[in-house]
Design goal:
By secondary structure, this protein is of the alpha+beta class. It is built from seven helices and twelve strands. A hairpin with a 2-residue loop joins strand 10 (about 275-290) and strand 11. The longest helix has about 50 residues, at about 1-50. It is globular and about 75 Å long.
Length: about 325
């Protein structure tokens, strides 16, 4: 991220240096032109003063006639050149945003200015582990404050085929991950929340995606850009889940690292604000580990809204005090 900002600053500096150089050159050119014009005017005035009145009148008529004859053509040429320049500028601006890299970088820059937002969506999964099938539908609603200390308040409802519905609530900040289930709060290190939060895409992640921009296809719609990626195995896990994915314990670690996966990932970015508005993730995987074998299908659809609508979001004191810490 710092490297990207550095490149942007270098680019701006070069543009400013070029603009300043052109301005100095223009000033020198204008100054020389004024001096030459003044000198020429003085000579013309002296020559006209020496001419008879009839010659002066004839010269004035000739000058006026020449101006009248050349004016329409000159004006049309200027208009054509101006229109051509504007057209070229518009085409250049459009061309810069047809590539996934430019769109992702601009979206990353826009999302840097987001201090709070709402994320909501649903994940449907069908997993068969050692011939036991579990079908889940997970509904997630989250309010987030983004800053030096990110804070999240999230509610989760889980509907499953093998047990009754359950409701969960969680808070996350840079210090701790708090989770409530069955009316009991527990706390864990924040890294354990990573596995459940790949549905949160921030500016750094969008910048990370730009490094793989050649793998994204761009669809240009009226109000949005849609960027689509399809991949398999380690490449898919690196791009979608993150190369530094931390896994809760050995049981899931084996399953994750041995996973053979294929899937698609789709980002919807608003053309006007360049905020990320929606994402869609769908994949199918087979895996194995010390716990056995498994087959997993998952589809997630999430939307982003309420950008910069919240002022404050804190972990309540009673949650901090009542939570039992789990290593």
């Amino acid at each position: 991220m710092k490297k990207l900002v550095g490149y942007i600053l270098i680019g701006i500096t070069l543009l400013l240096m070029t603009a300043c150089s052109e301005e100095v050159m223009n000033d020198k050119t204008n100054k020389n032109t004024v001096e030459e014009t003044d000198a020429t005017s003085e000579e013309d005035n002296e020559a006209e003063a020496e001419q008879p009145d009839d010659d002066v009148e004839t010269n004035e008529k000739t000058k006026q006639q020449n101006n009248d004859d050349s004016s329409p053509s000159d004006q049309q040429t200027n208009v054509d050149e101006t229109n051509k320049k504007e057209t070229n500028q518009n085409e250049d601006a459009t061309a810069k945003l047809t590539g996934a890299a430019a769109i992702l970088r601009k979206s990353s820059e826009a999302m840097q200015n987001v201090e709070s937002l709402y994320i909501g969506g649903t994940t449907v999964s069908d997993a068969i582990i050692n011939d036991v099938e579990r079908i889940e539908t997970i509904h997630i609603n989250a309010d987030m404050m983004i800053g030096e200390q990110n804070t999240i308040h999230q509610t989760v409802k889980i509907e499953a085929n093998d047990k009754s519905d359950s409701n969960m609530e969680m808070y996350l900040n840079e210090e701790m991950y708090y989770l409530k289930e069955n009316d009991k709060w527990i706390s864990m290190e924040p890294e354990y929340a990573v596995n459940n939060l790949y549905n949160t895409v921030f500016d750094e992640q969008l910048s990370f995606y730009s490094d793989y921009s050649s793998l994204f296809q761009v669809t240009d719609e009226e109000e949005h850009y849609i960027l689509s990626y399809s991949g398999t195995d380690e490449e898919f896990k690196e791009i979608v889940f993150g190369a530094d994915q931390k896994v809760l314990n050995d049981f899931f670690r084996d399953f994750y690292h041995n996973m053979k996966i294929t899937g698609t990932y789709e980002l919807t970015i608003d053309k006007q604000t360049f905020y990320l508005k929606n994402y869609l993730l769908e994949y199918e995987a087979t895996t194995s580990g010390t716990a056995g074998k498994g087959h997993i299908y998952e589809k997630s659809a999430f939307s982003y809204s309420n950008f910069n609508a919240y002022v404050e979001l804190i972990v309540p004191q009673e949650v901090r005090e009542s939570a039992e810490h789990v290593n």
